[in-house]
Design goal:
It is a single chain. By secondary structure, this protein is an alpha/beta fold. The chain folds into two domains: 3-206, Rossmann fold; 223-437, Rossmann fold (3-Layer(aba) Sandwich). The chain has helices spanning 3-9, 23-32, 44-51, 62-70, 106-115, 135-145, 185-195, 208-238, 243-250, 274-282, 290-316, 344-354, 388-392, 408-414; strands at 13-17, 36-40, 74-77, 88-91, 124-127, 156-159, 178-182, 202-205, 325-329, 358-362, 396-399, 418-420, 435-437. An eight-stranded mixed sheet has the order 3-2-1-4-5-6-7-8, with helices on both faces. Helix 6 (135-145) links the parallel strand 5 (124-127) and strand 6. It is globular and about 75 Å long.
Length: 438
């Protein structure tokens, strides 16, 4: 029986590899559609948590997991042999950068090396991890064909980039249009048949490279525009103009303008990383991606800009950064989520510590710093408990992430020096000279 026939009858088995912010919600969608779905991850603590009906991601509630565990449509495992009984395998593993800002495909390649011995004829493989154009046909295709399968006939391969926006109540991975490209027309048709089970709208493109490029264009567009507004912010600061007032005025134009906002740097699993995938690949074609690299330079410099402005404000009070107690407000990379991957807060903490400051953080969504590759020194540090007495003990508070959970009135009442990188206090009455926007 072919995949589309199994999907129609509800007999298809889906394996999703990688139970993170992308893979878990996708797997749960398939499970809730009635298809037997297996969440495969090398981290047994994740699969054990899932099998107990619990969640380890804040915006995914246990109520979404426990019903499909109880009815048997979802289970977690670390055993790659589960692939042998699957009809479709979806790869949702990280694609970070190396220390030299080159693509790190080790997670994708290691996953493939473990998976290919278990592949069977008739299966579909979909890669969702963001990567450079050519990854699917250059890295995955040869490994599958080496097993003796002819792709497009007895095995199918597609690329369909994730479009997750954690914490956004207006969009889910079911309602966001799903881009998909196949190695062949037959591959595309099989991929469409699978994703139609859980996605309201599919956007088919001509190839896996076009799908890979689409994801990079989306995030490079954001990176460049954020770089532009960050640069505009620095110019506005020098001219004593409030960039936030300017943005609010500009966005009243009903055409030709989309509002982007400045901040202390880029964060998350996409925008700080994805542009460099295309920059790296473009070099193969002797192309220099100047816009992309310039935006990257500006965005990467923003934490230093914030630290410099903080130091200047403390100097005005005859306080050096060295020895000052500084509280970072917000560890997550964006508002109202618990995801702190690539968060600029880490860069701020590192920079302040290098200058001798004593650093704490407060984030109700991240009670303890998780392990990170580049900021291991902070692993395990706990968020402070919010209290008027505790807030008043700091020489300066830096708002790095704007969470709705903050008691801003309490913050203003107890903190004499605040550096606001997100305009979190834009609508709050503050004392003269209390707030510095940076």
């Amino acid at each position: 029986m072919k995949l589309n026939e199994k999907l129609a009858s509800g007999e298809a088995v889906i394996v999703v590899i990688g139970m993170g912010y992308v893979g878990l919600p996708l797997a749960l969608n398939f499970a809730h559609s009635g298809l037997k779905t297996i969440g495969l991850d090398i981290d047994s603590s994740k699969t054990d948590t899932l099998n107990s009906g619990k969640s380890y991601i804040e915006h995914i509630s246990a109520d979404r997991i426990s019903p499909v565990i109880e009815n048997g449509t979802f289970s977690g495992t670390t055993d790659f042999s589960c692939i042998e009984g699957a009809d479709a395998i979806i790869i949702c593993v990280p694609t970070p950068l190396t220390s030299h800002r080159d693509p790190d495909l080790s997670f994708v390649i290691n996953t493939m090396e473990k998976a290919v011995p278990h592949f069977q004829k008739g299966q579909l493989v979909s890669l969702e991890s963001t990567t450079y154009p050519g990854t699917t046909d250059e890295e995955l295709l040869p490994r599958i064909e080496a097993q003796g399968f002819k792709v497009g006939e007895d095995f199918h391969l597609v690329f369909s980039p994730e479009r997750e926006d954690p914490g956004n109540p207006d969009f889910t991975n079911s309602t966001i249009p799903k881009v998909i490209g196949g190695i062949s027309p037959a591959c595309l048709e099989q991929g469409k048949a699978m994703y139609e089970q859980v996605c309201d709208q599919l956007v088919p493109v001509s190839s896996t490279r076009a799908a890979e490029f689409t994801k990079l264009l989306e995030n490079i567009y954001r990176s460049i525009n954020i770089g532009l507004v960050n640069e505009m912010k620095m110019v506005a600061d020098a001219m004593d103009v409030d960039i936030w007032e300017v943005i609010n005025a500009a966005k009243t134009k009903p055409f030709g303008y989309t509002a982007f906002y400045p901040g202390p740097g880029l964060g998350g699993h996409c925008i700080p990383i994805d542009p460099f995938y295309l920059t790296w690949k473009a070099k193969e074609y002797n192309l220099h991606t100047r816009f992309i690299e310039l935006a990257g330079e500006i965005n990467e410099a923003m934490p230093k800009y914030v630290v410099r402005h903080t130091a200047e404000r403390l100097n005005q009070l005859k306080k050096p950064v060295n020895g000052s107690k500084i509280l970072i407000l917000g560890l997550a990379y964006k508002s109202d989520v618990d995801d702190c991957r690539e968060s600029p807060s880490f860069a701020l903490m590192d920079l302040f510590k290098e200058q001798g400051a004593e650093i704490d953080y407060y984030d109700p969504h991240v009670p303890k710093v998780p392990p990170t590759r580049e900021h291991a020194i902070w692993t395990g540090q706990a968020s402070i408990e919010w209290s008027a007495e505790k807030l008043a003990s700091y020489d300066c508070v830096v708002i790095s992430t704007k969470h709705k959970a903050y008691n801003l009135d309490s913050l203003v009442a107890n903190c004499p020096v605040i550096v606001d990188t997100r305009n979190a206090l834009g609508e709050i009455e503050t004392k003269t000279g209390q707030v510095t926007k940076a």
